[in-house]
Amino acid sequence: MIRHVVIWKFKEKAEGYDRSTNLERVKGELEALPLRMPGVIQRMEVGINSLENGTNFDLILVADFDSYEALASYLANPEHQKVADLVMRVREQRAAVDYEV
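Structure (tokenized):
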């Protein structure tokens, strides 16, 4: 199994929305992906940071896939690409790790 972990720091304002609203928008879009891509994502968790200390990232995605091929399929899927495009417009920073579980 492959675990895909991504964290983002969001802009204070983007797309006409404040950071909090964009966090909720992106969280909802990410959480909808397993339904839009049945059988690709084995497990997905999305969380908004609850400790405002100025250094924490704002949003985390943890998703499990059967293989690196399944992860590559997810990344290339048009449904994922739509969400990735939104995230690109509202985030400041991104970090990711993919590893075998």
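Residues 31 and 64 are 13 Å apart (CA to CA). The mean pLDDT is 97.
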